[in-house]
Structure formats: C-alpha cells, structure tokens
Design brief:
This protein is of the alpha+beta class and 150 residues long. It contains four helices and four strands, in the order H-E-E-E-H-H-E-H. It has a four-stranded antiparallel β-sheet with strand order 3-2-1-4. The protein is globular. It starts with 20 loop residues before the first helix and ends with a helix. The mean pLDDT is 86.
C-alpha cells in the first residue's frame, strides 16, 4: 500500500507520515492562521453547542462551540488550497463537512458517504454566516442511520 500526503496526494517516503515536509509546513501555517483568526473573532451565535462560520475581510473563520465557548474547529484534511469553505460543493466544503462530522462523532476518519451527504444537504447551502447546533447534526445522523437500516 502506498502512503500519500493528505494535503497534496503525492507519494510519501515515510509510510507512517500523514504529510510530506512541504505539506506539513503548509498545514501548520494554515492551522496557525486559522487559530489566530478564530482567537480574534467571536461569532455571534444563538447556540451553546455546535459549529459556526463567518466570512471576514481576512478570510473564513469556523469555530466549534461547546457550552457557549468558541474555539477553532480542527481542520482534519487539507484538500482545499483555500481552507474551509461553504456555499457550494467543492473541496473546501468537503473539508469543512468532514471536520464537523468527525468532531461530532469523536473520530478522526468519518465515512466519506456521510460527510459528503452532509456537505450536500447542509454545507453547500450556507451563506456568509451560519451556525448549526450539535443536536441538529446528531438528529440528522440518527435519521440517516435509521433510513439506511430500513
């Protein structure tokens, strides 16, 4: 099995690595920028637990909210060159959907069919500012699971 960089898809020499050296530097820089932006921005929300995003002049900011406390959402896989995005069906929205579903389920590797469907049903339709409650995500996941089992 060939191990490839999770950011660019190139073959890796180290079978245990997730990113190549350049990809790792880019991911670290993107994560640092996202954390800095999120640390400086509090998104006005109506939920206590969930996720929210907003577009700013400096880029997009996405936060995870638990008990009313906002923190940057961890970006698991960097397929999009511009980071988290929403409002359409590309790689940035897929990165966002994957990170939200993974966080909500407490996993590192959610089923692609689940997060791609979440992207189509939710993320692709979001505007410049959005929020989604954790309970809404869990309800959607339960309904989806019940529909598959039926």
């Amino acid at each position: 099995m060939t191990n490839t960089c999770a950011r660019c898809g190139r073959r890796l020499k180290d079978p245990n690595a997730t990113y190549g050296p350049i990809g790792a530097r880019k991911v670290a820089a993107e994560q640092a920028l996202a954390e800095q932006q999120a640390a400086n921005i509090t998104i006005p929300v109506t939920i206590r637990d969930g996720y929210a995003g907003t577009r700013t002049p400096d880029g997009s900011v996405v936060v995870r909210i638990r008990n009313g406390v906002q923190e940057p959402l961890r970006h698991l896989v960097h397929h999009s060159p511009t980071g988290f995005e929403w409002g359409y069906g590309g790689s940035g929205p897929a990165d966002l959907a994957r990170s939200i579903i993974a966080d909500a389920l407490g996993t590192e590797n959610p089923d692609p069919a689940v997060y791609q469907e979440f992207k189509r049903m939710f993320v692709a339709g979001w505007g410049d500012r959005w929020e989604i409650a954790l309970d809404e995500i869990r309800t959607w996941l339960e309904k989806r699971k019940a529909a598959i089992e039926a």
